[in-house]
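Sorry, I am new here, but would you mind making up a protein's amino acid sequence and the tokens describing how it folds?
***
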Amino acid sequence: MKQRKFTTITINKNGQTYKRSVAYRSIQELAEKRTAFEKEIEEKGKFYFADVADQWQEEHEKIVEHYTAQSYLAPLKDLKAEFGDMELKGISALSIQAFLNRMQVQGYARQTINLRKITMSQILDYAVLHGMINFNPSKVCKVPKAPKEIRQPPSDDDIKKIHAAPDGFWKRYFLLLMYTGLRREEAMALTKDDLDFENCTVRVNKVIVYESNVPKVREYTKTAAGDRFAPFPINLHPYFKDAQKGLIFGVDGMPMNKGRFDKGIAKFKKENGITCNSHQLRHYFATICHGVIDAKDAQALLGHAKVSTTLDIYTNLDQRQKQQAIQKINQFIEGTA
């Protein structure tokens, strides 16, 4: 049996030097160990998109508000489905552009596609920062033009039906969203202590989130100065004077699970012939703001991260009013012709 020999294998790769002491009995065995060492080094330098995306998400959620973090969940799911098992170095600008173009062909709104590009860019920026890749290929990609998604406020008929509905839990919920502009998750986390009857304001500083399908209250402002305040019109006061302790829209003051909440809303809408959803009620509040206060002030009341979101709503409302004006003129001329 041949005597064992000892040596150090040295491999230079990407400007780095790797060394390993090995024992061998033949030149062939030494070559095999060198090959295995090279493969090991090669594997260490591989970073897969799904793993990096998870790392980015964990870091990102520490520095952004709840709604911002939530808005990235759907884009992350889509991106991981497309690129998850790919090595970062194998993701090219062409493959990213093809993904964005395919979304456009499938009829997705431009804003939806753009959020995928933003998410991809942030993940790849994170990879560049941590030395996983040398450049971000998504920087040169373009969001293809697509029909812009327009969210409409509830119809006048829906508004009348909400007011005509018998008083109760769900009518109060609908009225609150209509006249405060709160999001669904914000309304679900409200307590009576958040209602200031004297100054006619609602304090907004927490939301209901679902962790493993379990509802929990989470504060998303770190200081009192970070609280958002929304109007609490006096016509809403009678509905909430006798609000229960704990969460107003809860079960015995405790958080309500999403399934029960959804069923309650669906039943209320069916019984009263209402078609609009919670987000459309928030847009109704935006119609009240429109023409009364400027977009910057409305942004603060609605809690939009960017004033551009508020401006988009205002622009849509302007177009809607112009269309209504044209219809009135057409009807007037038709009646006099």
About this structure: The radius of gyration is 28 Å.
